[in-house]
Amino acid sequence: HDPYSWSFTSPTIRYITQGNTLGEAMLNTIKNKPYEKYMKFLPHKYIGNELFDLETKNTYERILLGNPKTRLFEKQDQYLKSDTIISTTTTAKQTLTLTSQIPTTTFTITKTITNNYNLTNNTIVTNADEYIMYPGFPAIHVKTLINPLPQNANLQSIKFKPTYNTEKNLNITYMPYDQYYNQTINPITEQYPKINYNYEIYDNPDNTKEIHIITPLEIHNNTTTDILNKATIIITYTSPMEITNIIAKNTTINNNNTVEITITSSIYENGKLYLYLDNQEYESKNITTNTNTHTFNINTPKEGRHAVTIIYDGETSIPAKHANFYVFDPVFTLQPPITQRKKITQKSTLPFKFTVHDKITGFFIKDTECLITTETDTYPCGKGKYTTMLNDEEERYRANIELKPLNPGTNTITANILGTTKTFEIVINTKK
To answer: What is the pTM for the complete model shown?
Structure first.
């Protein structure tokens, strides 16, 4: 059976929750045929005494058992209405446009699809958990990306930039016909599927939207198969408002943390921001959308991974946004060589190296804002002579400390990683 058969009921339910009567919901579904766009992938026709494609079959088989005038939900009044169902980095361009008297801003989302696969016995093995399966045609692995959009969002463009690996004469699994049709499977001689991606946008009951991007991972063409390696998808849309950024930095135990939220809005309204920490409401605050940046201060929870969710409650519905951060219990380890210089010259330096790992997990703790200080100088994270260099591959920090300003004997060098400081004592020996 078709794994997408459930989808034909969803548009009708969506129209009902938007306040249409049962009869209107059915008629709108038949008129717009939103899910039949899936069939663009699949040229298969049902074969029997008559020839029907899936759109025609789906249209004529709709039967309403009930009063068509029944209305289960209050009718929704929206600024923008569209009967057309169209189908993590977000940037905003402050170019205001006017659509149905609502000022909007242009936003861009960049998504990436990566297909991790291998060939086993000349057969494609991948971690995809969805398929296109139609009798008489190859079973196609599919990946679907789902991204929420704000209320009144309008799609402007989608740029799909894939890269493929081409293989020849692979073993292809064809879906069998039902015994009723008594059909013979013929190998394909032309491209299948016909397109390399499809998309839909669905309206949610809370007035937000969801864009679904459906991508087949294989495209067969006679004896060759193009296997998706990676695809970059750039989505441009307009909307009155969007949460464009959440910053929740990693931290260490016993240090407070902040969560910074950026809202880009071309309209003015009062609303409320809710911060959920690990699925529990933590704090809320009243805001106005003419202020872009909002900050929550949180007491650092226990060591480990934590989830932050930001929900906006106002006249305009925008999707919740999510972020993660880690709380580490750092363990500092000084690395050799720490040489005791017999003679200090103007150009003498000390290769000060150390590593920091989490006490529980052993993870290397990275801090691009690290800082090393001596009694006379500072060495911030960066690249250059007077900086602290972060080596991710070797899992260590290094600074070439100038010895000339240091005093003979014991000197202190302090490392600051994610707000936690560790002081090391270094002995400078000047004896000949």
So the answer is: 0.67
Residue range 315-352, pLDDT digits in tens: 999 999 999 999 999 999 988 765 555 455 556 778 88
**Inter-residue contact 300 to 281 (CB < 8 Å):** no
- Give the C-alpha separation, 219 to 162, whole Å: 12
Q: Which domains does the chain have, with CATH numbers?
A: 5-239 (2.60.40), 242-328 (2.60.40.150), 330-428 (2.60.40)
Q: Encode pLDDT of 14-50 as tens digits.
A: 778 778 888 888 887 766 554 444 444 433 343 344 4
